[in-house]
Design brief:
Elements: H1 4-32, H2 38-45, H3 49-77, H4 79-98, H5 103-131, H6 134-165, H7 170-173, H8 175-189, H9 203-225, H10 234-254, H11 270-287, H12 289-301, H13 305-329, H14 335-356, H15 363-390, H16 397-434, H17 442-455, H18 460-465, H19 478-514
Helix pairs in contact: 1-5, 1-6, 1-8, 3-4, 3-5, 3-9, 3-16, 4-5, 4-8, 5-6, 5-16, 6-13, 6-15, 9-10, 9-16, 11-14, 11-15, 11-16, 11-19, 12-19, 13-15, 14-15, 14-19, 15-16, 16-19
């Protein structure tokens, strides 16, 4: 019979996991939850679309930049300390966001949130790995992974409900009581752990890695915010090339330091590299795709934010229930083939959605695709997490967690940009080819074409529904124009889905070829 002390220790571990999961759920939820609130924020603050984009991008930027910083600080000075600090920063950032009286204030507050979210996310997997051992670690990582999948997919639903029932400020205010509960649980039940606590801060490495990530992410965001700019535009290529040079400099310097920020020997582990590459493919192929799936369902099919979120539960519900089960399976089956099968399932789901795209598509048509996306998302995260920490020495688990999250975030940012380019190019080419054949006066046709191309694929239906198009809607040719817009977006979505499949299949191949069936550091 277990002693009371041993039983209490077990309960303490699971309560610590609850605190960790509450933190990362908030951090990842706030990546997507804001999307559905942008129209009401724009109305309240009378902001331009470019400024609105920074409500999302300020969070994304700071989140990506500080992942490695907090991973290193946590390894040196205590993961619990900096996880809790991240929780405080995030909660205060949420309060500041809710109380913002201008777009600038909200952007700054969102940046503060991103810093806190980075601290929690970068250290959470390492704390879980240090708290649990044996089969319990697999289950705990499965639960941790299921929260990641659930938070990423459920954002539009949560945002839609809160905005519809209360206001956009509610999406930030709800974080405050959750943050306080998580802080209390973490204070009492999370045990502190370290990586190499006798090491030193590699200031040069810290600065170079931070600047490199900042430049690359900002370059990608510049391209996302200005899709008409060429990659050769100085504002884009300058940042990307500068970031790459900084990254190369970082690697070269780190290899010659006795106490580097990142031990480059970690990248000699095939399992760690395979997990990182597969995480990039997952972020670029699935999580970035959610942005365009939401646009399809709301702007073109016509579902409300809440209706969209409810239907997307078909994806996220599998993560909630299957994550812990898959976590247990990582104790019995190969991480390699679990990760591979998860990414293949996602690829199959994307293909089924691709096959179903047509002008009259509804949720029923791609529900089966959603099922495969959900099964794959639930299956892939636990083995990728296990492979990442199993492929490095125990003292490197914290940094391995940070690097894995950076790869996932890079994947999301890169995916959003490249998928958006595919969508925009196909949309514009289709409209340019189809609109001239519609029987309309040349001046009217030119105006409509200019308006649609300028507004972009997200806003096609909104342009046709605007007051400026009121006269067009009375003409027999309006149906043809409307059909051309729908067909153009459908073609763009097919291009998006094809590229998403390339990313996920690439991740599956990396998992199959690189992830090992044993812990690399035990070789």
């Amino acid at each position: 019979m277990k002693t009371q002390t041993h039983f209490s220790a077990e309960i303490k571990h699971w309560l610590a996991l609850a605190a960790i999961c509450l933190g990362i759920f908030m951090a990842l939820l706030d990546v997507t939850v804001v999307n559905v609130a942008l129209p009401t924020v724009q109305k309240d603050f009378n902001e331009s679309f470019d400024n609105l984009q920074w409500i999302i991008n300020a969070y994304t930027m700071m989140y990506a930049v500080f992942l490695l910083v907090f991973a290193k600080l946590g390894d040196l000075f205590g993961r619990k300390r900096f996880f809790q600090l991240g929780m405080v920063i995030f909660t205060l950032g949420s309060l500041a966001s809710a109380l913002s009286q201008s777009g600038l204030q909200l952007n700054l507050a969102r940046g503060v949130q991103g810093v806190g979210g980075a601290a929690m996310m970068s250290l959470s997997m390492a704390i879980v790995a240090a708290t649990f051992t044996g089969q319990e670690r697999g289950i705990a990582l499965g639960i941790w992974s299921s929260v990641i999948g659930l938070a990423t997919a459920i954002g539009p639903l949560v945002g839609g409900i809160l905005v519809q029932l209360f206001s956009w400020r509610a999406i930030f205010l709800i974080n405050i009581p959750i943050g306080i509960i998580a802080l209390v649980l973490g204070r009492w039940f999370i045990n502190d752990s370290y990586g190499n606590r006798h090491g030193h801060i590699d200031l040069i490495g810290l600065i170079l890695s931070t600047l490199a990530i900042f430049a690359i992410i900002l370059g990608l965001l510049q391209k996302e915010n200005h899709p008409s700019w060429a990659w050769s535009n100085l504002h884009i290529v300058g940042l990307l090339v500068g970031g790459f040079i900084l990254l190369v400099s970082f690697v070269l310097i780190e290899r010659h330091l006795s106490d580097p920020m990142i031990d480059m020997h970690m990248f000699a582990s095939p399992s760690f590299v395979g997990s990182a590459v597969a995480s990039f493919g997952l972020g670029a192929g699935l999580y970035a795709f959610y942005t365009y799936l939401t646009v399809l369902m709301q702007n073109y099919i016509g579902y409300s934010a809440m209706q969209t979120g409810i239907r997307q539960l078909t994806i996220s519900v599998f993560s909630l229930f299957l994550g812990p089960i898959v976590g247990m399976l990582t104790n019995r089956f190969s991480n390699r083939w679990l990760a591979f099968s998860g990414l293949v399932s996602i690829s199959l789901g994307l293909w089924l959605i691709y096959r179903s795209i047509n002008p009259t598509v509804t949720y029923v048509d791609f529900a089966l695709g959603f099922v495969f996306l959900g099964l794959g998302n639930a299956t892939v995260n636990p083995p990728l997490s296990s492979a990442a920490i199993g492929g490095v020495k125990p003292e490197h688990v914290g940094m391995a967690s940070g690097i894995a999250n950076v790869f996932r975030q890079f994947g999301i940012s890169f995916g959003v940009v490249t998928l958006g380019i595919q969508l925009t190019n196909a949309y514009q080419q289709s409209l340019t080819a189809s609109l001239p054949s519609i029987k309309l006066p040349q001046t009217a046709l030119s105006g409509i074409q200019h308006g649609l191309l300028s507004a972009g694929p997200f806003s096609g239906p909104a342009v046709l529904a605007s007051s400026r198009a009121s006269q067009l809607r009375r003409l027999p040719a309006f149906k043809a124009v409307h059909g051309a817009v729908i067909n153009a977006f459908d073609l763009g979505m097919k291009h998006v889905l094809l590229l998403s499949m390339v990313f996920t299949i690439g991740g599956a191949i990396a998992a199959a070829l690189l992830i090992r069936d044993h812990d690399d550091f035990n070789q």
